């Protein structure tokens, strides 16, 4: 009985340590699903956009530029995703803050325009999506539709 | 005769497909004409400016700094052309949006000052012009005069 | 009938002029095909790489990072594609030149490592592919396999 | 008489100071002449290059990209001119030094490839020319032909 309890304790502690030392990741398969959902939504609305996905380290793992999208969106889509990832919030939050008077935030290394969303799983940030190409409100609609299409939790 | 007409039709359709998969370009000859018109307008007004022309890939193919123009305009003229090219619209559009309250656009990688215009041919963007050196309104007047001087469509 | 043929001839010549002043493009559909072929080759060899495709303007229109690829390859794959596009030649050409003694080329803004190839169609450069993740020879094998899988001419 | 001599002395000294505080300049007219000579030489050889001219402050005052020149030459031509200007010597000097064993110069912020030449007038450096597009030896031939075509001293 004593040995059994000791073994149980070891198992629980090991599991706990294992959980504490790992984080969920965003792999290419999931990124493809998110990007496909984004492209499907954009196509259904006849919108052209650049779609970017960052992983749990904030690294670009997927980028697609739909035909006809303005060239500037290649950089902007990445910047929106970067801002959403680095500050764990939708870029629209910063947009609203600046529009609401917090104009000093223009000095921050952020892109405060709707269309960037962090991606969470079990309360961990596992990446971000950045959309650019149409109006920022439309960019935001695509980003939200893309994340809704996959079940992360 | 019938075979001849069929062959002709095939040739026309083939050419049409080739056009659909290609885009018009802005060569040095056209860039020179646009820049000469810009310089002529500037000279007639006794203004000094830097003139920049980007091609269909957004690459700098012509730059001229008129004597006496402030040094900062060498970079600004290029940035205005870049913004007009990358976002397919006059830089004044962004200037007006930010002046009108969309101050969060200050976080975008754009130069939101009048004087940059995209260049279109048959609904394709084939380049951009950027002017800097005098007031931004005057820069804009030169850019417009330059594009009006050449017939693109 | 004569007027009809004349009209046809004019149409054909007009189309021809339009083609002469334009260049072929690399769209997302073609980029997807090339990237899929690259990923298939990499998977078959059990290699992990980042795949990047630039379009006819040298702009990034597709990027995919296969799971497990080293993070540095995200930038290197883009740099290889950039070098291949900007100098219209395989990056291996520069690698061989530098290895062969032209060490002053290390001061050039290039990435002289195998794995980047320009993409041509009808003698026009329409883009480039950049691969990074395994050895540079293996990166080059993937790039070549990817372009061979699509018929461009 | 005394007042006259004093006045004369003041005039001479003022003139002397004025000369000491000025430097010859490279204006757009001269830059155009140099660039035209470069383009003429390139055309006569059926070569395509980017031509760049810097002024006495090292600022870009003229850039022309001949049709068909590789995109990378837009940056490289500027870098060659910058190196020639900043170090008051032909870029080939650095190329030869590195090829000759001084490989540590690869850590310098220079572009050590033939095709960049400083422009002197009365022992003052008044600018630089940078050529890129064909082989570096050919780039150098164009740069030399361009400067020979204008009489600077």
What do these coordinates show?
Chains A, B, C, D: Residues 1-20 form the signal peptide. Chains A, B, C, D: It comes from Belliella kenyensis. Chains A, B, C, D: InterPro entries: GlcG_carb_metab_protein, PduO/GlcC-like, PduO/GlcC-like_sf. The structure is a homotetramer of 153-residue chains. By secondary structure, the first copy, chain A, is an alpha+beta fold. Chain A has one domain (24-148): Haem-degrading domain (Beta-Lactamase), CATH 3.30.450. Helix content of chain A is 48%, strand content 17%. Chain A has helices at residues 2-20, 28-44, 72-86, 91-99, 136-148, and strands at residues 50-54, 60-65, 116-121, 124-132. A 4-stranded antiparallel sheet of chain A has the order 2-1-4-3. Chain A binds chain B through residues 70-72, 75-76, 79, 94-95, 98-99, 103, 105-106, 108, 110-113, and chain B through 58, 83, 85-88, 101-110. Strand 1 (22-24) of chain B pairs antiparallel with strand 1 of chain C, so a sheet runs across the interface.
Task: Give a nutshell description of this structure.
With 153 residues, chain A is of the alpha+beta class. In chain A, 48% of the residues lie in helices and 17% in strands.
Largest beta sheet: strand ordering of chain A: 2-1-4-3
What would you give as the CATH superfamily of chain A? Haem-degrading domain
Query: pLDDT below 50 for ≥5 consecutive residues: which ranges of chain A?
Result: none
Share of residues in helices of chain A = 40-55%
């Amino acid at each position: 009985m004593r040995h059994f309890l000791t073994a149980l304790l070891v198992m629980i502690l090991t599991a706990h340590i294992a959980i504490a030392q790992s984080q969920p990741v965003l792999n290419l398969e999931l990124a493809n699903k998110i990007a496909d959902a984004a492209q499907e939504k954009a196509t259904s609305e006849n919108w052209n956009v650049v779609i970017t996905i960052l992983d749990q380290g904030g690294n670009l793992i997927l980028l697609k530029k739909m035909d006809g999208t303005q060239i500037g969106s290649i950089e902007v889509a990445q910047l929106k995703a970067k801002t959403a990832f680095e500050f764990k919030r939708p870029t629209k939050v910063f947009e609203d803050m600046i529009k609401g008077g917090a104009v000093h935030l223009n000095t921050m290394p952020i892109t405060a325009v709707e269309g960037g969303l962090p991606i969470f799983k079990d309360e961990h940030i596992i990446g971000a999506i950045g959309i650019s190409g149409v109006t920022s409100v439309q960019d935001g609609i695509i980003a939200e539709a893309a994340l809704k299409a996959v079940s992360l939790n």
